[in-house]
Design goal:
The chain is of the alpha+beta class. 27% of the residues lie in helices and 20% in strands.
Length: 284
């Protein structure tokens, strides 16, 4: 049945309006993601600038932040204390300024030759606080990298989560580790805590998902945040090697520090892609 002329006009207007709105939303998302990525690059540049000045890791000592505590003469009125930015004398120098801006800042993750070069956030009382927030705590669609529930930045097992962004930012390039050739080209993951320079070597990579609580006989990697128990550690490594898409040949022993990176994957509902690495050195 042929639609009346007026109905066809309304339908055409509706389609045009939908097209315009969709186009506007697409442009808005592109602009927003670009702005968020530029903000992250600015943060990274502050770190790289310190690295250029101090090529070797530099750690502040307690004396660096000592202030004059000499008691004023009795007849003088002590000057009002000048408010100071918070300092942590244990922090590596290159991370001090960022930590002063946001105490949730807990480390830095970098993979040479990729877009991964970001601060890692840590809010143990609300682990997903930065899921949709940038370093400045304001809304950001791409969110921030963050340490997941049960993990700690400098513990025996840090699980770091990040969004799989279409523009390749955050963990958008992480699924490239599905190919053994990519892992060979990018075998080292640099994950610094605020007090220690760390390098990790890729142990394995695999596809997974967020399972239902009732699902049994499956590997719920996100439930292995604490690997302090030898049996739990061995169980986790055994599952990682069994699930991995390739064998890197790495030998892992209880006591090794483990790093797990997790992002969304679209191979299945609630899919995830995971990369696991073992600490290979720490030079401070």
């Amino acid at each position: 049945m042929k639609l009346p002329e007026k109905a066809r006009k309304y339908a055409l207007i509706g389609c045009c309006a939908l097209f315009i709105v969709s186009g506007f939303m697409l442009i808005r998302d592109v602009v927003r993601s670009t702005q968020e990525e530029n903000a992250n690059k600015d943060i990274a540049e502050t770190i790289h600038e310190v690295e250029r000045v101090h090529p070797k890791p530099v750690q502040r000592t307690a004396t660096t932040f000592d202030t004059d505590t000499t008691t004023a003469p009795a007849e003088q009125t002590p000057a009002e204390p000048v408010p100071e930015e918070p300092v942590n004398t244990r922090l590596l120098e290159k991370y001090q300024s960022l930590w002063q801006k946001n105490n949730d800042f807990s480390g830095w993750l970098r993979i040479e030759g990729t877009n991964v070069d970001y601060p890692v956030m840590y809010t143990p009382n609300d682990p997903e606080y930065y899921l949709r927030r940038g370093f400045n705590k304001k809304y950001a669609g791409s969110g921030s990298l963050f340490v997941g529930p049960g993990s700690s930045p400098d513990g025996n097992h840090a699980i770091i989560y990040g969004h799989h962004m279409r523009n390749g930012s955050m963990f958008g390039s992480l699924p490239s580790y599905a190919k053994a050739s990519y892992a060979k080209q990018h075998p080292v993951i640099c994950y610094d805590t605020l007090t220690e320079i760390r390098d990790y070597e890729v142990l394995g990579a695999f596809y997974s998902k967020v399972y239902n609580n009732t699902d049994t006989g499956v590997f719920k990697y996100y439930q292995y945040a604490d690997l302090s128990d030898p049996q739990v550690f061995d169980e986790y490594i055994r599952h990682v090697k069994a699930e991995s898409l390739y064998d890197t040949g790495l030998d892992v022993q209880y006591g090794d520090s483990i790093l797990t990176l997790s992002t969304c994957s679209y191979h299945t509902k609630n899919g995830r892609f995971v990369v696991v690495a073992r600490k290979i050195n720490a030079a401070v």
